[in-house]
Each structure stands twice: as structure tokens, then as C-alpha cells.
Amino acid sequence: MKKPTLDLRPPEAEEHELKRNLSNRHIQLIAIGGAIGTGLFMGSGKTISLAGPSIIFVYMIIGFMLFFVMRAMGELLLSNLNYKSFIDFSADLLGPWAGYFTGWTYWFCWIVTGIADVIAISAYLQFWFPDIPLWMPAISCVGLLLGLNLVTVKMFGELEFWFAMIKIVAICALVCTGLYMVVAAYQSPTGNTASLANLWNDDGMFPHGAMGFFAGFQIAVFAFVGIELVGTTAAETKNPERNLPRAINSIPLRIIIFYVFALIAIMAVTPWRDVVANKSPFVELFVLAGLPAAAGIINFVVLTSAASSANSGVFSTSRMLYGLAVDGDAPGKFGVLSKRAVPSNGLIFSCICLLAGALVIYLVPNMLDAFTLITTVSAILFMFVWSMILLSYLAYRKQRDSLHRASKYKMPGGIFMVWVCLTFFMFILALLALQEDTRQALYLVPAWFVVLGISYRQLRQKRQEGMQLTFDAD
């Protein structure tokens, strides 16, 4: 028997809608790009100094939990191919308010993350051009990403493909270099010998105890933001029944290869106490290996990683605005597609917000404090979106259990694992409250939801007034 489907598209959108132009090659690399954040390249030094070798378990635990979030998202998207993204299924299963809050929060997530990325790109370019004003590369970067994304969705797919490929090559090179140095028993100038024993020889795997282990979660979770990006490509994916499961199922293997193996290679070559918190351990390992151009090469890799994240932000925010506009939760102009089936108005608006935010941040005296605040706010908002995906799954199991039983791509662990993941996110929030620099973000985030609540209430009132006027006219 054919499964019932709910067609969420308005009649006028059927002839002019998002096109399925992203192939399996694009989807696989978009998923990899989403799973490998800039935080791995630049933030891993700080996480190692906080947690020591136990940081390996931190990344594995976060990756393990997010895999179930992605599986829940995958089952929901494939239960109804008219769902364009998680906005649609959250609105359908939890109510219109959920689609409104999820869509606008996800838009804001990527604007906040994109601001950090654009500033990072400007800072990385100063490695080669120290005299260039910071605002110039910021404007150039946003302008370039806007221009490329206005062409076609396939252009976004190609950009992400090559950005992700650069990250993969860099990490594989690091793992292979570290393995060679361990096998060759390389001895550093400070007298340390490369060996796997470095992971447990210096006060064990948990040198700072439980608090040091927990402290690693605060920064590590930001490295995973964007892992759900594959869910925003659902409406533009060729053969989603085959390609979405492939991309999601390979997440555990990616976490092991790109996070765990990379961290093991770093700490096997350089004992964790010698890893400098404010430097990229990727650069340090290649310098030890005798590669004098390491700083320039890794600077290029991190630059492309930040560009990849900014590119993802530009893409996903425009698709969120499109979905919100189609549902009547954003201005109608954002629901208009160009001749190339691209939501150009949403792209332009997101890029303006991105650039304005980046230019304002330049006025903040302490750039490090600004970055800590931005990344923590971003991580909290992303956890809200991940939680909405899980809550949608709970509603789906309650309301559409027949669809779940008929599904060929069921979430393993089901309802039990949903509650495990939600409890884990609450645990992360509690950890963020322990440190003063991350606690500030917890004070700021509620203001965003107050604004959303007020705007949603006003939107409802306008709709009710419009319906009443229509009724009176009849």
C-alpha cells in the first residue's frame, strides 16, 4: 500500500520551486564539510590543554549523540518527500510556532556563525597581506559568496565539494604524517619521542580529572555545528531515498577518521602538556615533521574551512527564509525564486545581515572575547535546533506511528535515544554555565527567543485580523 503523503506546497509554487540539482557526490561532501568544523583546526589546541588525551572521548561522545539526531532527521525527511527541510516537519508535527521558531533560529544560527567566519577569513588573509584593512576582505568575501550562490544550487554544491576535499586531504596528511613519525620513533628537539604511549604516560588519559574532561565539551561542541546541513538540502537532492541515508550513515566513520585519528596523531607526536592552547596543533605537527611551509599551508586550509562554513551559512539561511516565506512566516519576497530556481532575495538579505554584523564586531575592543561570545551563542542556538528535530521525532512517533512502521530508514534506539540526546544537551548547557566567558551567552540567548515570541504573536494577530476581514467581506 502506498504511504500517505502530505503536500505542503502552495499551488503557485508547484511550477516554480527548488530544483533537485545536488548529486550524491555533492551531498556526501556537504555532509563531510558539515561534520568537520573550523574548530577542529584552530580550537583543538585549547580543548587538548583543557582535557588532555580524554578530549578524544569528548569528540566521540558528541559525535555519537549527533549521529542519532541526524538519523531522526533522516527518518522524518524520508517519511514525506514534500518536506523541504526540518522547518517543514517541525511545523507539521509540533505546530506552526515550531516551524517559526526553528526556521528563524536556524537562520540566526548561521548569521552568527557566518559573522565569526568572515572575521576569521579577514584575519587569516592578513597572514599573507599584513597591511590590508580588515573590512576589505570581509566585503570581498561576502560579495564573492553571494555572486557564486546566485548562479545555481549546483555552484554551491561544487564549492562545498572542493572546500571539503581540501579539509579531508589536510587531515589525512596529518594522520599519515603522525603515523610515520610514531613508527619511526621520531624524537623532537625537546627530547620527546613520538609514541602512542604519550596518550597515557603523563598522568593518564584524564590528567585534569572529571572537571577537565567536562570542560572540553564547552568548546568541542562548536566544532560540530553544521552537521545537520545535509537536512537543508533535502528539497534539492537527487534521489533523496538513496543519497540522504548514505550521507547520514557515514557520519560515525567520519568522526573516527577526521576527529579521533587526527587528535591521536597530534598527541602521540606531541605530549598533551606541550600542545599550545592558542596555536593550531596541525601547524606544530607539520613543523616538527620538517615542513617549513606548514604555517602557510595550514593557514590556507583553515581559510578554506572558514570559507566553507560561511558558504554553508549563505546557502542555508536563504533556504530557511524561502521555507519561512512559503509558510507565511517571513515576507513573501523571500519566497520568490530567480529564473535559475535560486531564492535570490533571501540570499541578498542574509549577506547584508552577515556583512553588517561582521563590520559591527570589528568595533569590539577585545576580539577574543567577541569570538568566545559568538561561538557560544552559536552552539546554544544549534542545540535548540537539534532539540527541535528530536521533539519533532517524538511527535511523529505519537501521531504517525504507521509511517514509522513502514519506514525503511528507522532511527536506531527510537524514543529512548531521543531522551538520551535531549538529556545530553541539557548537560552541555549546565557546563556552559560553569565558566564566566560562556555564561554570558546563556544570559543573551533568551533575549532572542523573547523577540521571536513577540513577533510570532504579532504575526498571529495579523493573520486573525485578515481572516476576520475576509469573513466579514463574505
Overall description:
With 474 residues, this protein is mainly alpha-helical. The chain has a single domain, classed as Amino acid/polyamine transporter I. It is 70% helix and 0% strand. Helix 4 (55-79) crosses helix 17 (414-432) and helix 13 packs across helix 14. Mean pLDDT is 79; it is low at 1-16.
**What share of the residues lie within helices?**
55-70%
User: Do you know the CATH topology?
Assistant: Amino acid/polyamine transporter I
Low-confidence stretches are 1-16
Q: What sort of overall outline do the alpha carbons produce when their principal axes are compared? A: globular
State the end-to-end CA separation: 42 Å
Strand content: under 5%
Question: Radius of gyration from the CA trace?
Answer: 23 Å
CATH class: Mainly Alpha
Number of separate strands = 0
The CATH homology group name: Amino acid/polyamine transporter I
Write the layout of secondary structure elements.
Layout: H1 24-35, H2 38-42, H3 44-51, H4 55-79, H5 86-94, H6 96-125, H7 135-149, H8 153-183, H9 209-220, H10 240-249, H11 251-269, H12 281-288, H13 294-326, H14 344-361, H15 367-399, H16 401-406, H17 414-432, H18 436-473
Question: What are its keywords?
Answer:
Amino acid/polyamine transporter I; 0% strand; transmembrane helix; mainly alpha; 18 helices; transmembrane
Structure described in brief:
This protein is mainly alpha-helical. It has helices spanning 24-35, 38-42, 44-51, 55-79, 86-94, 96-125, 135-149, 153-183, 209-220, 240-249, 251-269, 281-288, 294-326, 344-361, 367-399, 401-406, 414-432, 436-473. The protein has one domain (16-473): Amino acid/polyamine transporter I (Up-down Bundle).
